[in-house]
């Protein structure tokens, strides 16, 4: 175990896996940076630094800077994957699926099925996601509900550095396309990360905390917020299971249902807008498959049905807070 | 003209196979036996064949909604294709894809594509792969005049120039994108000119002349194989049928197709040229015709008799690992 | 009242509203058709005929054929709406949001909010949607769950000709952007349509049928399938409320909850893939806001988590059927 | 050169206002007082002003993530802008938009845009509107060199040609898109050439020369107003700061900016020209400087003191009717 940031965990995983498998390539805007400039080579290493050093280690052939052309980036990943490579494409911000969505949802996601199982498309599309930096309405969205709805895509949403490493490694060694979300606020966060090969299977939730009175399901940055909420609730003797699904497609509903067998009370925390969110989705699935376990209304803790506002005060009010989560837990426990 | 006799016969056989495949589909679709909607390639055969005759199984192509010709030219199994179009269990894609989603990875055919402009970005990815493989392989990206207005296509062309990718962007200008004329929808009415603006060599040829397509494509592929970056090829052509089967074609003058069938028939042009030059005889060509007709008959008969996919197949092939 | 097809209802509404309001314009691929061709003018009138005759009536200035450039189409609608017009843009198939999504979800949806309420963007984006014609994986999707998730967009999904007229009229007279879904299988379906001005408000569900034992919520073509299912169940004395939300954003949850007060049993039918669908969304909202009303597990009747297959037999198995709906109702009533 | 003295003073005032607005932001951002991330327009002023001087309030522009200059040149209230960038309740967009989403509909400013390539399709829609209005109004679509590689931009240019829209596509080539050079990312390294390929007139000018921009833009707008369809204007320029505030700019030679500040400063160029020609005196220009500095001071002071939006504002302005 070594303490690492989320960013370092991702970066080191890319280094290790690219060294292991010569078919892995990385592409996107400024994944190296500096091409055509007057300064140094690899002037960027990804704007969040996740691909730092890859260009130096693996060269321009495998670490490919692209023009600002997201359809071409995701499409190139699609084609390279069909032709035997394992491309890792970066969208600078998840919000940019808007200019590349066809290649993601009509092409990459559907190839294997449309072509009768005769191919595979192991393209990985990485996307920094989420609010909290006052980046405004077009640079702060969660996006993962949209891709979770698309059959053929797998969706990974790590909440800490260890899972970031484990899920990315699994993605890179699997044969399916994966959309990989990295919450921007998590990049500098540290935790213990297993050394050497470390794989976190898809479709296996993490039981982050065990507790008695409720089941809290949370994703990405909200896992951390939920922990804060539970810390606060501990003073009042309220404890809860905290479950991080880690992948929303496939989704580990079983772990949630098992917890509900004991607690009967469900709170789902999702930074997304409420409608057709992962929060309402899990609530709906539980209402269908775990109805008998529920002893109280499911609590949905999400952002409101609004774009992400800019001003600090507004964005803070927009993002679900530890207090919001604590209030929801209290409500359902008191029910 | 550098083609040997066997190659000439192959070219003719492929073009004739495409033609008869499509003519027969035209008849069969009218009976209601074939699901979905289907876009026929009749009239455009010289382009698919003139381009793909330069390619081996490990060169790649990407195709369009009007993809049957590209598939056949790239070597896809004709019977498997027909079964796919009928939606049969042993169709090339198990009946899951249909006419607009035929692919054959053993033949380097990365898929027809029902999204206009869907293919070219994928072609750049395949070209990145072969460039990394360092094996001198190339990728051809087929598209229509209409597709040339899609943003994804422009992005792909620019990326190919930036990365010096071995991609040939083939534009088949058949005069229309659905019900709209090229001269309206392509602002400059000059697809090759627009491609040249992206910084690549771009040429125009008569798409009804197999030899013109073949020669120019060969020249452009040579450039690609020398690592000199992408190129574009605009082919002027017509389609002998509507956009899709059932299209009333009100956007076309009544006699347009009849005239074009006289003046722009690549098979007729080919036969005239090879017999005029004494490269092949009518008898040799007729023998190919007979063979092709038998193949198509067989394909249709087998397809009609073939079982549909089992409904359990709905749920398979979404992921490699679940 | 006059009997009309769904297609006629839409077409006549466009004619009437364009005559009434000179700011309404129509744009898209082949909305007229024939430009640059050798045949007649207005050779198409929309590939499903919805814009038929508009070009003749209102001319090329207001009925604008475009190149195959969906981002430009939706973007032009965005810009024209900001500049005071009421554009009605057509995507030939809903599946094509993949190549135009940014303009829809980052631009049109967010303008009013990002710009502090100082503008409005009354663009209407029409989209033929749904499976059932063996059009394959890239021409058969429902798409509406994706846009329902986007704050700033309103989403209308009529299930019959009368609602098609009423909702489109409301959309054209409102000041917000609307994504308007037209299920392809409904175009030739007929019903009584009110003559003259007819508006169906957004956010008001229709109680299509009243019944005793359950509440069935269905959308678009599935309303018709649900009716078939209920017809079959009547023989066994099983009846149900059938609710058609008509708009998913805003969503009339109250009507569903009211019905559940009587029935306690909920079946939701959605032709979409299951995850983050409108089905799981409504189920989740009910589990949150109507938990006490539920007497049995919510039944989700959706397509499977797969792309849409081509072959007749497969597509038939993919689309939820009246039998599937009837089975779900039986199950929940027997619970 | 057709400008009157008052117009010259206006041009200078606008350019100077942009410059000082940005220079001051550079300082204030370093203190951490301003939320989000901000892209400064310093160095590019002659382009925004040279173009927008031709426009009235009911002509339209669309802008980019680097939009402050376009806003000021189009007449947006400078204090309202500053407050918006600080995220204040009475900012131009109530603090909901921020630096990348400033708009002012009374001034025909249809919005900065944080999506590269987001603006040009919107510009075509505005141009469709003015064409229908028949009022001879025009739309300018601003974009960077990097944006010129985005598919949406190509689609917009083609649509504008097809519909003969009065849209001017302005490309500000400041040498970089984020950390990547134009010469790498634009395949042909010739943006205007690519635009010309779409079938429109496309010109290049020195973006540090106000008069060059102004004259050429005027010529192109005349063409637009005559109904002769769209045009493109490529302006060679540099930016005096990083891509965003905080950018370490490793992609730039150490002395690049310093050199450019000497050689490519549009304000310096302007002052030299107008004083050399005797059109304005240094004293007149200095008076403008003083006035501008006071305005910017005031804007910053007011912004610092202004209250933030009430949190209830999170929920408003999503729809007109709920
Ligand atoms: C993104 C997208 N937009 C629109 C369509 C509908 N469509 C299918 S084929 C076609 C015309 C294509 O024209 P062209 O590229 O010239 O090819 P052709 O049909 O002439 O072979 C259109 C508009 C589509 N399939 N995908
Ligand atoms: C669709 C999209 N892709 C990427 C980005 C991230 N991004 C913001 S500005 C920028 C560079 C733009 O370069 P250019 O158009 O030259 O404008 P400049 O910043 O030089 O003014 C990039 C890549 C974005 N905002 N939107
Ligand atoms: Mg065509
Ligand atoms: Mg730039």
List keywords for this structure.
heterotetramer, A: 335 residues, alpha/beta, Rossmann fold, 2 domains, five-stranded mixed beta sheet, 14 strands, 37% helix, B: 322 residues, five-stranded parallel beta sheet, two-stranded antiparallel ribbon, 45% helix, binds thiamine diphosphate, binds magnesium ion
Your description of this structure?
The complex is a heterotetramer, with two copies of chain A (335 residues) and two copies of chain B (322 residues). By secondary structure, chain A is α/β, with parallel strands linked by helices. Chain A folds into two domains: 2-193, Rossmann fold, CATH 3.40.50.970; 206-333, Rossmann fold, CATH 3.40.50.920. Helix content of chain A is 37%, strand content 19%. Chain A has helices at 6-20, 54-62, 70-82, 101-108, 111-114, 144-148, 161-173, 221-234, 253-263, 278-289, 312-318, 322-334, and strands at residues 2-5, 24-28, 63-65, 86-90, 124-129, 154-156, 178-183, 190-193, 206-209, 214-218, 240-244, 247-249, 266-270, 299-302. In chain A, β10, α8 (221-234) and β11 form a beta-alpha-beta unit. In chain A, α1 (6-20) packs parallel to α7 (161-173), α3 (70-82) runs parallel beside α4 (101-108) and α8 packs across α12 (322-334). The mean pLDDT of chain A is 98. By secondary structure, chain B is α/β, with parallel strands linked by helices. Chain B has a single domain (5-301), classed as Thiamin diphosphate (ThDP)-binding fold, Pyr/PP domains (Rossmann fold). Chain B is built from twelve helices and seven strands. Chain B has helices at residues 5-30, 45-52, 68-73, 78-86, 119-133, 151-162, 182-185, 191-197, 210-225, 256-263, 266-276, 282-305; strands at 60-62, 139-144, 167-173, 176-177, 180-181, 201-206, 231-236. In chain B, α2 (45-52) packs parallel to α9 (210-225). The radius of gyration of chain B is 19 Å and the shape is globular. The model of chain B has no long low-confidence stretch (mean pLDDT 98). At the A-C interface, α4, α6 and α10 of A face α4, α6 and α10 of C. Bound molecules: thiamine diphosphate (2 copies) and magnesium ion (2 copies). One magnesium ion is lined by residues 144-146, 174, 176-177 of chain B.
């Amino acid at each position: 175990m070594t303490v690492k940031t989320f960013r370092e965990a991702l970066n080191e995983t890319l280094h290790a896996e690219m060294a292991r498998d010569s078919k892995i390539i990385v592409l996107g805007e400024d994944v190296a940076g500096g091409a055509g400039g007057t300064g140094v080579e690899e002037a960027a290493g990804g704007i969040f630094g996740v691909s730092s050093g890859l260009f130096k280690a693996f060269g321009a052939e495998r670490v490919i800077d692209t023009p600002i052309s997201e359809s071409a980036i995701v499409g190139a990943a699609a084609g390279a994957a069909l032709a035997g490579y394992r491309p890792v494409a970066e969208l600078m911000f998840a919000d940019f699926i808007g200019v590349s969505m066809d290649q993601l949802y009509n092409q990459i996601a559907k190839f294997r099925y449309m072509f009768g199982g005769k191919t595979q498309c192991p393209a990985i599309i990485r996307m920094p996601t989420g609010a909290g930096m006052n980046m405004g309405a077009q640079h702060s969205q969660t996006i993962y509900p949209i891709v979770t709805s698309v059959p053929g895509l797998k969706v990974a949403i790590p909440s800490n550095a260890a899972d970031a490493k484990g899920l990315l490694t699994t993605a890179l060694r699997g044969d399916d396309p994966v959309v990989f979300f990295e919450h921007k606020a998590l990049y500098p966060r540290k935790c213990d990360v297993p050394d050497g090969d470390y794989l976190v299977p898809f479709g296996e939730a993490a039981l982050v905390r065990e507790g008695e009175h409720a089941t809290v399901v949370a994703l990405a940055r909200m896992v951390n917020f939920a922990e804060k909420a539970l810390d606060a609730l501990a003073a009042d003797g309220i404890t809860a299971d905290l479950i991080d699904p880690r992948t929303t497609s496939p989704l580990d509903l079983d772990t949630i249902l098992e917890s509900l067998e004991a607690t009967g009370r469900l709170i789902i925390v999702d930074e997304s807008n409420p409608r057709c969110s992962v929060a309402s989705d899990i609530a709906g699935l539980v209402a269908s498959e775990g109805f008998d376990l529920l002893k109280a209304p499911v609590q949905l803790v999400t952002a409101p049905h609004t774009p992400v506002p800019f001003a600090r005060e507004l964005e803070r009010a927009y993002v679900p807070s530890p207090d919001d989560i604590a209030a929801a837990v209290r409500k359902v426990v008191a029910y | 003209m550098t083609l040997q006799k066997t190659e000439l016969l192959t070219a003719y056989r492929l073009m004739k196979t495409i033609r008869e495949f499509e003519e027969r589909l035209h008849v069969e679709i009218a009976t209601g036996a074939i699901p979905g909607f289907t876009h026929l390639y009749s009239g455009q055969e010289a382009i698919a064949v003139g381009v793909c005759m330069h390619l081996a199984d490990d060169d790649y192509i990407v195709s369009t909604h009007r993809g049957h010709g590209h598939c056949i030219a790239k070597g896809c199994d004709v019977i498997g294709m027909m079964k796919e179009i009928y939606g049969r269990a042993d169709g090339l894609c198990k009946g899951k894809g249909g006419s607009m989603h035929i692919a054959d990875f053993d033949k380097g055919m990365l898929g027809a594509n029902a999204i206009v402009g869907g293919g070219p970005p994928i072609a750049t990815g395949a070209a990145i792969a072969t460039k990394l493989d360092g094996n001198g392989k190339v990728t051809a990206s087929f598209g229509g005049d209409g597709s040339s207005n899609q943003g994804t296509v422009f992005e792909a062309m620019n990326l190919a120039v930036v990365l010096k990718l071995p991609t040939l962007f083939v534009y088949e200008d058949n005069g229309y994108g659905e019900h709209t004329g090229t001269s309206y929808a392509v602002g400059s009415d000059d697809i090759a000119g627009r491609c040249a603006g992206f910084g690549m060599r771009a040429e125009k040829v008569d798409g009804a002349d197999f030899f013109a397509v073949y020669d120019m494509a060969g020249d452009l592929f040579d450039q690609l194989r020398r690592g000199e970056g992408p190129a574009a090829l605009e082919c002027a052509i017509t389609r002998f049928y509507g956009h899709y089967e059932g299209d009333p074609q009100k956007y076309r003058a009544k006699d347009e197709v009849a005239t074009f069938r006289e003046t722009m028939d690549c098979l007729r042009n080919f036969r005239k040229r090879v017999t005029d030059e004494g490269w092949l005889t009518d008898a040799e060509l007729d023998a190919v015709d007979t063979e092709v007709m038998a193949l198509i008959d067989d394909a249709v008969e087998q397809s009609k008799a073939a079982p549909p996919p089992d409904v359990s197949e709905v749920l398979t092939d979404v992921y490699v690992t679940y």
